[in-house]
User: What shape does this take?
Amino acid sequence: MAKVKTTFFCQNCGSQYAKWQGQCTSCKAWNTIAEEVIQKPEKSSWKTATSTSASKRASKPLKINEIDTAQEARLDMQDAEFNRVLGGGMVQGSLTLLGGEPGIGKSTLLLQVALRLPYKTLYVSGEESQKQIKMRAERINPKENNCYILTETKTQNIFKQIEDVAPDLVVIDSIQTLHSDYIESSAGSISQIKECTTELIKFAKETATPVLLIGHITKDGHIAGPKILEHMVDTVLQFEGDRNHVFRILRAHKNRFGSTNELGIYEMQGSGLREVSNPSEILISEKDGELSGNAVAATLEGLRPLMIEVQALVSTAVYGTPQRSATGFNAKRLNMLLAVLEKRAGFRLGAKDVFLNITGGITVDDPAIDLAVVAAILSSNEDVALPSDYCFAAEVGLSGEIRPVQRVEQRILEAEKLGFSTIFVSKYNKIALKNTLIKIQLISKIEDVVNFIV
Ligand code: TYD
Ligand code: MG
Assistant: This one.
Protein backbone atom coordinates (compact mmCIF):
# COMPACT_ATOMS: atom_id res chain seq x y z
CA MET A 1 0.00 0.00 0.00
CA ALA A 2 1.26 3.46 -0.85
CA LYS A 3 2.32 5.70 1.97
CA VAL A 4 -0.48 7.68 3.53
CA LYS A 5 0.32 11.32 4.05
CA THR A 6 -0.87 12.70 7.34
CA THR A 7 -0.72 15.95 9.14
CA PHE A 8 -1.81 17.30 12.53
CA PHE A 9 -4.75 19.61 13.05
CA CYS A 10 -5.98 21.42 16.13
CA GLN A 11 -9.56 20.22 16.66
CA ASN A 12 -10.39 23.53 18.27
CA CYS A 13 -9.15 26.19 15.84
CA GLY A 14 -8.08 24.14 12.83
CA SER A 15 -4.36 25.18 12.81
CA GLN A 16 -2.10 22.76 11.03
CA TYR A 17 1.14 21.30 12.43
CA ALA A 18 3.82 19.06 11.03
CA LYS A 19 4.10 17.07 14.25
CA TRP A 20 2.12 16.47 17.36
CA GLN A 21 2.40 18.82 20.31
CA GLY A 22 0.57 19.14 23.58
CA GLN A 23 -0.65 22.69 23.23
CA CYS A 24 -1.90 24.47 20.15
CA THR A 25 0.34 27.52 19.69
CA SER A 26 -2.35 29.57 18.02
CA CYS A 27 -5.40 29.05 20.24
CA LYS A 28 -3.51 27.86 23.33
CA ALA A 29 -5.88 24.93 23.90
CA TRP A 30 -4.33 21.80 25.39
CA ASN A 31 -4.63 18.33 23.97
CA THR A 32 -6.66 19.28 20.93
CA ILE A 33 -4.15 18.29 18.26
CA ALA A 34 -4.91 15.10 16.38
CA GLU A 35 -3.46 13.37 13.38
CA GLU A 36 -5.47 13.37 10.17
CA VAL A 37 -5.00 11.95 6.73
CA ILE A 38 -4.71 14.52 4.00
CA GLN A 39 -3.89 12.35 1.02
CA LYS A 40 -5.17 8.89 0.35
CA PRO A 41 -3.25 6.41 -1.79
CA GLU A 42 -6.29 5.46 -3.86
CA LYS A 43 -9.64 6.97 -4.52
CA SER A 44 -11.95 5.51 -1.93
CA SER A 45 -15.58 4.89 -2.58
CA TRP A 46 -18.24 2.76 -1.04
CA LYS A 47 -18.19 0.88 -4.29
CA THR A 48 -15.22 1.30 -6.59
CA ALA A 49 -17.29 0.37 -9.62
CA THR A 50 -19.55 3.36 -9.17
CA SER A 51 -16.78 5.85 -8.63
CA THR A 52 -16.96 6.86 -12.27
CA SER A 53 -20.69 7.43 -12.00
CA ALA A 54 -20.12 10.59 -10.02
CA SER A 55 -19.95 12.75 -13.11
CA LYS A 56 -23.14 11.19 -14.48
CA ARG A 57 -24.92 11.88 -11.25
CA ALA A 58 -23.56 15.40 -10.88
CA SER A 59 -26.54 17.48 -9.86
CA LYS A 60 -27.90 20.45 -11.74
CA PRO A 61 -29.23 23.55 -10.00
CA LEU A 62 -33.01 23.55 -9.75
CA LYS A 63 -35.58 26.07 -8.62
CA ILE A 64 -37.04 25.21 -5.25
CA ASN A 65 -40.46 24.42 -6.69
CA GLU A 66 -38.94 22.13 -9.30
CA ILE A 67 -37.36 19.89 -6.70
CA ASP A 68 -39.21 16.65 -6.42
CA THR A 69 -39.73 15.73 -2.79
CA ALA A 70 -41.49 12.47 -3.56
CA GLN A 71 -38.20 10.61 -3.11
CA GLU A 72 -37.98 11.98 0.41
CA ALA A 73 -40.60 9.38 1.29
CA ARG A 74 -40.06 8.18 4.81
CA LEU A 75 -39.62 4.67 6.00
CA ASP A 76 -42.10 3.77 8.72
CA MET A 77 -40.03 2.34 11.57
CA GLN A 78 -43.02 0.46 13.08
CA ASP A 79 -42.30 2.15 16.36
CA ALA A 80 -44.36 5.21 17.28
CA GLU A 81 -41.74 6.69 19.61
CA PHE A 82 -38.88 6.26 17.15
CA ASN A 83 -40.96 7.71 14.31
CA ARG A 84 -41.90 10.70 16.40
CA VAL A 85 -38.32 11.53 17.31
CA LEU A 86 -37.22 11.21 13.69
CA GLY A 87 -40.00 13.57 12.65
CA GLY A 88 -42.32 10.96 11.11
CA GLY A 89 -40.14 8.08 9.98
CA MET A 90 -36.73 7.69 8.47
CA VAL A 91 -35.85 9.70 5.36
CA GLN A 92 -34.46 7.66 2.46
CA GLY A 93 -30.72 8.03 2.08
CA SER A 94 -30.27 9.68 5.46
CA LEU A 95 -27.59 8.96 8.03
CA THR A 96 -28.68 8.83 11.64
CA LEU A 97 -26.30 8.61 14.56
CA LEU A 98 -27.49 7.20 17.87
CA GLY A 99 -25.31 7.98 20.88
CA GLY A 100 -25.59 6.93 24.49
CA GLU A 101 -23.85 5.60 27.57
CA PRO A 102 -22.65 2.00 27.50
CA GLY A 103 -25.34 -0.46 28.53
CA ILE A 104 -28.18 2.00 28.11
CA GLY A 105 -29.77 -0.11 25.37
CA LYS A 106 -28.60 1.32 22.02
CA SER A 107 -27.96 -2.09 20.48
CA THR A 108 -31.21 -3.41 21.90
CA LEU A 109 -33.21 -0.52 20.46
CA LEU A 110 -31.79 -0.74 16.96
CA LEU A 111 -31.87 -4.54 16.82
CA GLN A 112 -35.47 -4.42 17.93
CA VAL A 113 -36.30 -1.85 15.24
CA ALA A 114 -34.43 -3.85 12.58
CA LEU A 115 -36.18 -7.08 13.54
CA ARG A 116 -39.63 -5.58 13.47
CA LEU A 117 -39.42 -3.97 10.08
CA PRO A 118 -41.23 -5.61 7.19
CA TYR A 119 -38.39 -4.48 4.88
CA LYS A 120 -35.09 -6.21 4.37
CA THR A 121 -32.61 -4.93 6.95
CA LEU A 122 -28.92 -5.57 7.52
CA TYR A 123 -27.60 -5.35 11.07
CA VAL A 124 -23.82 -5.08 11.06
CA SER A 125 -22.14 -5.59 14.38
CA GLY A 126 -18.50 -5.11 15.15
CA GLU A 127 -19.05 -5.61 18.85
CA GLU A 128 -20.94 -8.84 19.27
CA SER A 129 -20.89 -12.22 17.58
CA GLN A 130 -23.83 -13.54 15.57
CA LYS A 131 -24.63 -15.95 18.43
CA GLN A 132 -24.73 -13.15 20.98
CA ILE A 133 -27.03 -11.15 18.74
CA LYS A 134 -29.24 -14.19 18.27
CA MET A 135 -29.51 -14.55 22.05
CA ARG A 136 -30.50 -10.93 22.37
CA ALA A 137 -32.99 -11.29 19.51
CA GLU A 138 -34.60 -14.24 21.25
CA ARG A 139 -35.40 -12.04 24.22
CA ILE A 140 -37.00 -9.50 21.93
CA ASN A 141 -38.96 -12.22 20.16
CA PRO A 142 -39.74 -10.57 16.85
CA LYS A 143 -42.65 -11.36 14.56
CA GLU A 144 -41.11 -10.52 11.20
CA ASN A 145 -37.93 -12.03 9.96
CA ASN A 146 -36.32 -9.85 7.36
CA CYS A 147 -33.19 -9.03 9.24
CA TYR A 148 -29.73 -10.21 8.20
CA ILE A 149 -27.00 -10.21 10.81
CA LEU A 150 -23.40 -9.63 9.81
CA THR A 151 -20.38 -9.44 12.07
CA GLU A 152 -17.78 -7.44 10.20
CA THR A 153 -15.69 -4.36 10.82
CA LYS A 154 -14.08 -3.66 7.45
CA THR A 155 -16.17 -1.23 5.43
CA GLN A 156 -15.14 -2.72 2.07
CA ASN A 157 -16.43 -6.14 3.18
CA ILE A 158 -19.61 -4.62 4.52
CA PHE A 159 -20.31 -2.93 1.20
CA LYS A 160 -19.71 -6.20 -0.62
CA GLN A 161 -22.34 -7.90 1.56
CA ILE A 162 -24.67 -4.96 1.08
CA GLU A 163 -24.47 -5.47 -2.69
CA ASP A 164 -25.47 -9.12 -2.26
CA VAL A 165 -28.25 -8.58 0.27
CA ALA A 166 -29.56 -5.24 -1.09
CA PRO A 167 -31.12 -4.17 2.20
CA ASP A 168 -33.63 -1.33 2.64
CA LEU A 169 -32.03 -0.27 5.89
CA VAL A 170 -28.52 -0.70 7.27
CA VAL A 171 -27.67 -0.61 10.98
CA ILE A 172 -24.03 -0.28 12.03
CA ASP A 173 -23.11 -1.15 15.63
CA SER A 174 -20.85 0.82 16.12
CA ILE A 175 -19.05 3.43 14.00
CA GLN A 176 -16.05 3.28 16.36
CA THR A 177 -15.39 -0.38 15.49
CA LEU A 178 -15.30 0.15 11.72
CA HIS A 179 -12.14 0.48 9.73
CA SER A 180 -11.43 1.20 6.13
CA ASP A 181 -8.58 -0.22 4.05
CA TYR A 182 -7.75 3.21 2.75
CA ILE A 183 -6.53 4.45 6.10
CA GLU A 184 -3.88 2.80 8.18
CA SER A 185 -4.73 4.10 11.62
CA SER A 186 -6.59 1.89 14.05
CA ALA A 187 -10.37 1.59 14.36
CA GLY A 188 -11.91 4.33 16.46
CA SER A 189 -9.29 6.94 15.57
CA ILE A 190 -10.39 10.28 14.23
CA SER A 191 -9.33 9.66 10.66
CA GLN A 192 -10.92 6.17 10.56
CA ILE A 193 -14.22 7.44 11.89
CA LYS A 194 -14.18 10.27 9.39
CA GLU A 195 -13.31 8.04 6.46
CA CYS A 196 -15.84 5.31 7.34
CA THR A 197 -18.58 7.88 7.81
CA THR A 198 -17.74 9.50 4.48
CA GLU A 199 -17.96 6.12 2.75
CA LEU A 200 -21.29 5.40 4.44
CA ILE A 201 -22.66 8.82 3.49
CA LYS A 202 -21.68 8.23 -0.11
CA PHE A 203 -23.35 4.84 -0.03
CA ALA A 204 -26.52 6.19 1.61
CA LYS A 205 -26.92 9.11 -0.76
CA GLU A 206 -26.18 7.13 -3.91
CA THR A 207 -28.52 4.25 -3.14
CA ALA A 208 -31.14 6.16 -1.10
CA THR A 209 -30.71 3.58 1.67
CA PRO A 210 -31.05 4.94 5.19
CA VAL A 211 -28.20 4.09 7.55
CA LEU A 212 -28.39 4.01 11.33
CA LEU A 213 -25.10 4.30 13.18
CA ILE A 214 -24.43 3.63 16.83
CA GLY A 215 -21.83 5.91 18.37
CA HIS A 216 -20.02 5.61 21.68
CA ILE A 217 -19.90 8.59 23.94
CA THR A 218 -17.01 9.92 25.97
CA LYS A 219 -17.14 10.31 29.71
CA ASP A 220 -18.31 13.90 29.44
CA GLY A 221 -21.28 12.88 27.33
CA HIS A 222 -20.13 13.81 23.82
CA ILE A 223 -20.06 11.38 20.95
CA ALA A 224 -16.57 9.89 20.75
CA GLY A 225 -14.49 10.98 17.82
CA PRO A 226 -14.32 14.28 16.04
CA LYS A 227 -17.14 16.78 16.33
CA ILE A 228 -17.25 16.59 12.57
CA LEU A 229 -19.09 13.28 12.85
CA GLU A 230 -22.10 15.11 14.18
CA HIS A 231 -21.84 17.65 11.38
CA MET A 232 -21.65 14.98 8.71
CA VAL A 233 -24.73 12.97 9.63
CA ASP A 234 -28.29 14.16 9.06
CA THR A 235 -29.68 13.29 12.45
CA VAL A 236 -28.10 12.88 15.87
CA LEU A 237 -30.15 11.00 18.43
CA GLN A 238 -29.29 10.52 22.05
CA PHE A 239 -30.50 7.59 24.10
CA GLU A 240 -30.39 8.49 27.74
CA GLY A 241 -31.71 7.52 31.10
CA ASP A 242 -30.58 6.31 34.41
CA ARG A 243 -29.28 2.78 34.23
CA ASN A 244 -30.86 2.05 37.60
CA HIS A 245 -34.26 3.08 36.36
CA VAL A 246 -36.25 1.34 33.70
CA PHE A 247 -37.10 4.43 31.66
CA ARG A 248 -35.08 5.43 28.65
CA ILE A 249 -35.48 8.63 26.70
CA LEU A 250 -34.73 9.06 23.03
CA ARG A 251 -34.07 12.66 22.00
CA ALA A 252 -32.96 14.32 18.77
CA HIS A 253 -30.04 16.72 19.17
CA LYS A 254 -29.90 17.52 15.51
CA ASN A 255 -32.48 16.70 12.89
CA ARG A 256 -32.31 17.93 9.32
CA PHE A 257 -35.78 16.53 8.66
CA GLY A 258 -37.77 17.43 11.72
CA SER A 259 -37.96 19.11 15.07
CA THR A 260 -35.50 18.45 17.87
CA ASN A 261 -38.13 18.98 20.54
CA GLU A 262 -39.67 15.57 20.31
CA LEU A 263 -39.04 12.87 22.80
CA GLY A 264 -39.54 9.13 22.80
CA ILE A 265 -39.95 7.21 26.02
CA TYR A 266 -39.22 3.53 26.46
CA GLU A 267 -39.28 1.14 29.31
CA MET A 268 -36.55 -1.51 29.51
CA GLN A 269 -38.13 -4.87 30.15
CA GLY A 270 -36.89 -8.42 30.19
CA SER A 271 -38.09 -8.73 26.62
CA GLY A 272 -36.57 -5.61 25.11
CA LEU A 273 -37.75 -2.03 25.08
CA ARG A 274 -41.43 -1.26 25.35
CA GLU A 275 -42.82 1.97 23.92
CA VAL A 276 -44.42 4.11 26.58
CA SER A 277 -47.30 5.90 24.95
CA ASN A 278 -48.79 7.39 28.09
CA PRO A 279 -45.82 8.45 30.21
CA SER A 280 -47.69 10.58 32.75
CA GLU A 281 -49.35 7.64 34.40
CA ILE A 282 -46.13 5.85 35.19
CA LEU A 283 -44.08 8.87 36.20
CA ILE A 284 -46.41 9.61 39.06
CA SER A 285 -45.67 7.20 41.82
CA GLU A 286 -48.35 5.05 43.37
CA LYS A 287 -48.77 5.63 47.06
CA ASP A 288 -51.18 5.05 49.89
CA GLY A 289 -52.33 8.31 51.34
CA GLU A 290 -50.82 11.73 50.90
CA LEU A 291 -47.23 12.41 51.84
CA SER A 292 -45.63 15.73 52.55
CA GLY A 293 -42.96 16.92 50.13
CA ASN A 294 -44.61 15.67 46.95
CA ALA A 295 -45.96 17.87 44.19
CA VAL A 296 -46.93 17.18 40.59
CA ALA A 297 -45.79 19.41 37.73
CA ALA A 298 -47.45 19.64 34.34
CA THR A 299 -44.47 19.88 31.99
CA LEU A 300 -44.02 19.62 28.26
CA GLU A 301 -41.44 17.56 26.47
CA GLY A 302 -41.53 18.52 22.83
CA LEU A 303 -45.16 18.68 21.90
CA ARG A 304 -46.18 16.15 24.47
CA PRO A 305 -47.52 17.09 27.88
CA LEU A 306 -46.00 15.09 30.69
CA MET A 307 -47.04 15.02 34.34
CA ILE A 308 -44.09 14.40 36.62
CA GLU A 309 -43.69 14.17 40.31
CA VAL A 310 -41.28 16.33 42.31
CA GLN A 311 -40.20 15.18 45.74
CA ALA A 312 -38.49 17.39 48.28
CA LEU A 313 -37.07 16.72 51.69
CA VAL A 314 -36.29 19.65 53.94
CA SER A 315 -34.66 18.91 57.27
CA THR A 316 -32.58 20.76 59.82
CA ALA A 317 -28.92 20.66 58.88
CA VAL A 318 -26.89 18.45 61.16
CA TYR A 319 -23.57 19.93 60.12
CA GLY A 320 -22.58 23.56 59.82
CA THR A 321 -23.00 23.84 56.07
CA PRO A 322 -26.47 22.86 54.89
CA GLN A 323 -26.56 20.42 52.00
CA ARG A 324 -28.38 21.07 48.77
CA SER A 325 -28.83 18.31 46.30
CA ALA A 326 -31.02 17.92 43.23
CA THR A 327 -31.53 14.87 41.03
CA GLY A 328 -33.07 15.53 37.62
CA PHE A 329 -33.24 19.27 38.27
CA ASN A 330 -30.68 22.05 37.90
CA ALA A 331 -29.01 22.59 41.29
CA LYS A 332 -28.40 26.28 40.59
CA ARG A 333 -32.06 26.79 39.88
CA LEU A 334 -32.90 25.02 43.16
CA ASN A 335 -30.65 27.46 45.04
CA MET A 336 -32.34 30.35 43.29
CA LEU A 337 -35.81 29.11 44.25
CA LEU A 338 -34.69 28.65 47.85
CA ALA A 339 -33.36 32.21 47.91
CA VAL A 340 -36.67 33.49 46.54
CA LEU A 341 -38.58 31.58 49.23
CA GLU A 342 -36.30 33.01 51.87
CA LYS A 343 -36.42 36.60 50.70
CA ARG A 344 -39.95 36.95 49.37
CA ALA A 345 -41.91 34.57 51.53
CA GLY A 346 -39.90 34.73 54.74
CA PHE A 347 -39.04 31.06 55.10
CA ARG A 348 -35.80 30.47 56.89
CA LEU A 349 -34.36 27.72 54.77
CA GLY A 350 -30.74 28.86 55.06
CA ALA A 351 -30.02 26.46 57.91
CA LYS A 352 -31.83 23.51 56.37
CA ASP A 353 -30.73 20.62 54.21
CA VAL A 354 -32.78 20.48 51.01
CA PHE A 355 -32.94 17.42 48.78
CA LEU A 356 -34.91 17.40 45.56
CA ASN A 357 -35.72 14.51 43.32
CA ILE A 358 -37.63 14.12 40.08
CA THR A 359 -39.12 10.66 40.12
CA GLY A 360 -38.60 8.17 37.32
CA GLY A 361 -34.95 9.12 36.80
CA ILE A 362 -35.71 11.72 34.17
CA THR A 363 -34.21 15.17 33.83
CA VAL A 364 -36.34 18.18 33.04
CA ASP A 365 -35.36 21.67 32.04
CA ASP A 366 -38.85 23.07 31.47
CA PRO A 367 -39.12 26.24 33.62
CA ALA A 368 -42.78 25.40 34.26
CA ILE A 369 -41.64 22.93 36.89
CA ASP A 370 -40.53 25.76 39.23
CA LEU A 371 -43.86 26.12 40.97
CA ALA A 372 -44.07 22.41 41.72
CA VAL A 373 -40.55 22.55 43.17
CA VAL A 374 -41.53 25.45 45.42
CA ALA A 375 -44.72 23.65 46.46
CA ALA A 376 -42.83 20.44 47.26
CA ILE A 377 -40.26 22.33 49.36
CA LEU A 378 -42.95 24.21 51.27
CA SER A 379 -44.93 21.04 51.80
CA SER A 380 -41.92 19.24 53.24
CA ASN A 381 -40.79 22.21 55.31
CA GLU A 382 -44.22 22.60 56.93
CA ASP A 383 -44.83 18.86 56.93
CA VAL A 384 -48.22 19.35 55.32
CA ALA A 385 -49.20 17.01 52.54
CA LEU A 386 -50.57 18.56 49.37
CA PRO A 387 -53.80 17.08 48.08
CA SER A 388 -52.71 14.43 45.57
CA ASP A 389 -55.00 15.85 42.91
CA TYR A 390 -53.28 19.25 42.79
CA CYS A 391 -50.79 20.04 40.08
CA PHE A 392 -48.66 23.03 39.09
CA ALA A 393 -47.44 24.70 35.90
CA ALA A 394 -45.67 28.05 36.25
CA GLU A 395 -42.26 29.62 36.35
CA VAL A 396 -41.08 31.50 39.44
CA GLY A 397 -39.23 34.78 38.91
CA LEU A 398 -36.57 36.34 41.10
CA SER A 399 -38.96 38.76 42.73
CA GLY A 400 -41.31 35.95 43.66
CA GLU A 401 -43.71 36.61 40.81
CA ILE A 402 -45.45 33.65 39.20
CA ARG A 403 -44.73 33.82 35.49
CA PRO A 404 -46.70 32.42 32.56
CA VAL A 405 -45.54 29.37 30.64
CA GLN A 406 -45.98 28.38 27.04
CA ARG A 407 -48.86 26.16 25.83
CA VAL A 408 -50.59 26.23 29.17
CA GLU A 409 -53.86 25.00 27.70
CA GLN A 410 -52.30 21.75 26.61
CA ARG A 411 -50.99 21.22 30.14
CA ILE A 412 -54.40 21.95 31.65
CA LEU A 413 -56.12 19.49 29.34
CA GLU A 414 -53.59 16.76 30.16
CA ALA A 415 -54.08 17.36 33.89
CA GLU A 416 -57.83 17.20 33.43
CA LYS A 417 -57.54 13.97 31.45
CA LEU A 418 -55.56 12.38 34.26
CA GLY A 419 -58.14 13.35 36.86
CA PHE A 420 -56.47 16.22 38.67
CA SER A 421 -58.93 18.52 40.45
CA THR A 422 -56.92 21.76 40.54
CA ILE A 423 -54.08 23.20 38.52
CA PHE A 424 -52.10 26.25 39.67
CA VAL A 425 -51.04 28.54 36.84
CA SER A 426 -49.93 32.13 36.50
CA LYS A 427 -52.53 34.87 36.43
CA TYR A 428 -50.75 36.31 33.41
CA ASN A 429 -51.34 33.27 31.23
CA LYS A 430 -53.99 33.85 28.59
CA ILE A 431 -56.35 30.93 28.87
CA ALA A 432 -59.17 30.55 26.38
CA LEU A 433 -60.48 27.29 27.81
CA LYS A 434 -64.05 27.28 29.01
CA ASN A 435 -66.10 24.81 31.04
CA THR A 436 -63.19 22.73 32.20
CA LEU A 437 -63.82 20.12 34.87
CA ILE A 438 -60.51 20.97 36.44
CA LYS A 439 -60.32 24.08 38.59
CA ILE A 440 -57.82 26.59 37.23
CA GLN A 441 -56.30 28.43 40.17
CA LEU A 442 -54.71 31.68 39.01
CA ILE A 443 -51.92 33.03 41.17
CA SER A 444 -49.55 35.96 40.76
CA LYS A 445 -47.12 35.91 43.71
CA ILE A 446 -45.28 33.29 45.70
CA GLU A 447 -47.26 34.30 48.79
CA ASP A 448 -50.43 33.01 47.11
CA VAL A 449 -48.93 29.52 46.98
CA VAL A 450 -47.90 29.79 50.61
CA ASN A 451 -51.49 30.65 51.58
CA PHE A 452 -52.75 27.52 49.87
CA ILE A 453 -50.25 25.21 51.45
CA VAL A 454 -49.56 26.47 54.92
P1 TYD B 1 -27.35 -2.86 25.19
O1 TYD B 1 -28.32 -2.70 24.08
O2 TYD B 1 -26.33 -3.92 25.05
O3 TYD B 1 -26.62 -1.49 25.49
P2 TYD B 1 -25.61 -0.65 24.58
O4 TYD B 1 -25.61 -1.21 23.22
O5 TYD B 1 -26.19 0.75 24.68
O6 TYD B 1 -24.30 -0.72 25.27
O7 TYD B 1 -28.21 -3.02 26.51
C1 TYD B 1 -27.80 -3.78 27.53
C2 TYD B 1 -28.69 -3.73 28.72
O8 TYD B 1 -30.05 -3.90 28.48
C3 TYD B 1 -28.25 -4.87 29.58
O9 TYD B 1 -27.76 -4.35 30.80
C4 TYD B 1 -29.43 -5.73 29.75
C5 TYD B 1 -30.58 -4.91 29.33
N1 TYD B 1 -31.61 -5.67 28.58
C6 TYD B 1 -32.84 -5.88 29.17
O10 TYD B 1 -33.09 -5.49 30.32
N2 TYD B 1 -33.82 -6.56 28.47
C7 TYD B 1 -33.60 -7.04 27.21
O11 TYD B 1 -34.49 -7.64 26.60
C8 TYD B 1 -32.32 -6.81 26.61
C9 TYD B 1 -32.02 -7.31 25.23
C10 TYD B 1 -31.36 -6.12 27.33
MG1 MG C 1 -24.07 -2.20 22.21
